[in-house]
């Protein structure tokens, strides 16, 4: 899932004036420059630039050269520099890293054709320096009998300082609610319903919840529905440390989260700038009223460490929590409300949550580096990662940026020497303000919506490049499966593992599935909204992927690497515990670099549309098995959907045969271009911007959020789930019919896109 400190120096009125000036002058100039670059690739061609060597197809020698020149030691040094200081979005250090990227991409020896840093004026959220957020236990007489830590323990000398933002829930509103404490497990709606069913009074309480199960902001939304006044969130060692919780078992003695560690994060419900939905956040854009804009948590929220959570939770009274709600804090978890009389706090003590967050308009920059394509400069392969972190952000996101810089260095060097130029254009991107809700990437897709939809071949995302060093993990839409597999077969597993074993062979040992077409293959995960691929796949319908190295799931139950979004995610943490030697970083660089070159340089785009047929068939079978009987009871037939899937499968097979025939001959360039456009544009056919009016940006009818437990078409599954207990002829059943029609039309449109272009 995917950084600067707050700006404490300027008074607010000065800060706002600075934002307006920079937004009006620098932002306008940068965006104008970006428009020129992306629109026309108007790149100066100096006399000292050698003529490029252009191959008609992927040059395997160039590919191997790139693989060999990607150096683990350089990735390590990149990471050391990137994570040297905290770099919260819009902070001075974040802007310094913008300049570092520009310097690298404008280097005369290893730079790219062009680089720009357009800025957007976006709404961010920061804790107050004058009034720090505070959580305390207050006795009936009003005295404070216990206070939670306001910062993490300084274990390595890197957890304190003016640039280390204290733990907070970004976008949580200010307020000072006080009430009896209840334990609400993961803060899902079902959890609060369970408490209510047990007769536990929730009105006016403070709910202690643990990370996982529901999104950060959803915990506050769910709590507010039941009258809860404030929310606390902590990371249970059962969920992140495999139960380890003592100081000698955790960082800096192991990779486990120490007791004072607190996960920061955005509690905003949507992605993109909160005030400019569907519009780029330029200074002149229309903005919503901040006080009326949707998506912010309705009640104050604050994250705390599990050491403080233990003091609160292990003193609760009330019924014992269900077995599934228990954790690893060394006591029986009880539900409350309130503390027991024989505990550490006076009877009837309450918890006070004081939140003083403020929202501010800030300038946040994307950095774009461009290599102009030699043959098809109007076809773009995008490769990106965000730059901002919550604190030092060595794993998240700098492990990805370190790989990005090394890959662009190797390609830039070949480019400047005249050894290579890609067939299609490559756009490297360093997105701003991702941690606040994928803001930089979303604003970019809003500003260049039409251009990107018309011209983008694929988007490669490498955010956290190394969670751990066991195996590759890839997520993506079905057409990119084959190119990821091809790249993974080419790259050797990181040392000191068995020599000669490929990343593909290793991956299949850890995570696999049975494919009707290929037999046993590695499992390719689907894309949610955890990183910057989200606006590209859900909003623009661009084939996308996310590539990383990760842990052995059989050896840990950690939901993510333990120091995620804390001040303990440092260079030393990566160097000692995550990837000593940086061989896994190098393996990701080679795999992602191979994918990039295959997409940019192959004569025929290496996108396999037949693999979508396998997904559609799987979704159809799940719908027939789990929803078919219910639909029949309401006289709804899946017959048209069955036919639509069959049409798609036939069209995809015919297109693959057409590609094979062209590959065997000497195809006309226009024939190649027409076929490639069919491959590129297939993903767009699954978009319907009116399919999910309750969702923002989600238009893809196959990958929209699915709340139903049935692994099938999300719109149909969600509609059936809502209609299940309603009467015949209700609006809910009408929505089921609408979603079915939307699906059929999308699949028929996809099949039509794959048929011969002259077949009208």
UniProtKB/TrEMBL annotation:
The chain crosses the membrane at residues 21-43. InterPro entries: PA_dom_sf, PA_domain, Peptidase_M28, Peptidase_M28B, TFR-like_dimer_dom, TFR-like_dimer_dom_sf. It is found in: Apical cell membrane. Its cofactor is Zn(2+). GO terms for molecular function: aminopeptidase activity; calcium ion binding; carboxypeptidase activity; metallopeptidase activity; protein homodimerization activity; zinc ion binding. GO terms for cellular component: apical plasma membrane. It is a single-pass type II membrane protein. Keywords: Aminopeptidase, Calcium, Cell membrane, Disulfide bond, Glycoprotein, Hydrolase, Membrane, Metal-binding, Metalloprotease, Protease, Signal-anchor, Transmembrane, Transmembrane helix, Zinc. Residues 366-576 form the Peptidase M28 domain. Residues 180-265 form the PA domain. Residues 636-755 form the Transferrin receptor-like dimerisation domain. It holds the Pfam family PA. GO terms for biological process: peptide catabolic process; proteolysis. It comes from the Eukaryota. PANTHER family: AMINOPEPTIDASE NAALADL1 (PTHR10404:SF50), N-ACETYLATED-ALPHA-LINKED ACIDIC DIPEPTIDASE (PTHR10404). Aminopeptidase with broad substrate specificity. Has lower activity with substrates that have Asp or Glu in the P2' position, or Pro in the P3' position. Lacks activity with substrates that have both Pro in the P3' position and Asp or Glu in the P2' position. Lacks carboxypeptidase activity. Lacks dipeptidyl-peptidase IV type activity. Homodimer. Belongs to the peptidase M28 family. M28B subfamily. This is Aminopeptidase NAALADL1.
